[in-house]
Design goal:
alpha/beta; Dna Ligase, domain 1; Nucleotidyltransferase, domain 5; 5-stranded mixed beta sheet; 20 strands; 31% strand
Amino acid sequence: MIRLPGFGGQSSAGGQPAKPGVCAALDLGSSKITCFISRNEETATGTRPRVIGVGHQPARGIRAGAVVDMDQARDSIRTAVERAERMAGLAVSAATVTLTAGKIQSVRVQVEAPLSAREVTDRDLKRALDAALAEADAADRVVLHAFPMGWTVDDHAGVDDPRGMFGRKLGVVVHVVTAAAGPLRNLLNCIEASHLDLKGVVVTPYASALAALSEDEMQMGATLIDMGAGATSAAVFSDGALLHVDAVPLGGAHVTKDVARGLSTPLVSAERIKILYGSALDSPDDDREMIETPPVAGESDRMMSQPRSLLNAIIRPRLEETFELLRDRLEAGGAGRASERRLVLTGGAAQLPGTCEVAARVFGRQARIAWPEGAAGLGDAVSGPGFSAAAGVILRESKGAAEAISGPPRVGAPGGRKFAAAEGQRRSIWRWLAESF
């Protein structure tokens, strides 16, 4: 069973126990595992996190964000965490992790509760949120986030704070994000095997958006696309609220495999060639520029020369397919119109030249590449788009979660899961009510 989350204790890194205001973030990607450790610092404009420890390690045992080999994944996580602990000079025993696997889904739930013509209280708000969460509950799914999107009192919509108002019916629309219980349970077991407690789980595109989107973009409307190695996920924002999240199981690693097949070269060589020479855009010299490609073992001992135009012709269709699938999923999920605004790309796979232009053409709107912002102490090596998710978790922990429920999901034995989850949700809802109004 997952222990109660908290900081403290010693780790193999030999640091001192973590202190209040310290946060650890784990981004579990298919190509790399990243750990950020931060400490809150006071500035002239308020509190902000400063990253004091960084560790990243090539991912083993994880595919498309899901654990496929427990031992390898555990060792990769421990190595990344220990490197961050050594740099920070302290130990952590709990972390907030990102999640892309588990078929993340968005559900919007609308409920109404009777008021008996009396004044709305905190207990009425909590009862309405409890009813929404109960309606969103489904077998083999776990609630990760719940965002109240709007309140109504009788027929009056757009109410920001209904407390103190009088009416006969209180209504609320809640955006609930869920994940499949099986992959999440495997992830939690892997975290525990790494001698860490779970402080919380944040879906990857939401975490990346917190670091990559500006406040204006969240208010005016934007779609954040996080392009990882094994999956590409999206978070749609409007009026400052998260409206929808979704993901497709395609990413940069699939482009690399296409290059390896198309050029008949090993995967390691295909990744290097993609990074050095790859682009989704054509140039006049592509047919004349030749690229040397090592042969697959057993085929030949001689290097082959192939035009750069062939490489780009392999890359572009896979990127187009990825964005088209994601666009169709957003439209099917009811977020098509809301996602018709600004497009922001982040994640390691977004750095391939021409990716932004392909996304803009497929989605039919302006697009840009985003780097993580808002967290101090990020060196040049860890300030690129591939580190947006880890930075977003740090920012979320520093500012406080905006969700009605947060904290570690309870996915233990099926018989006790719902009760444990309900208890945690009730405590979290009371905390959200106290902090949000």
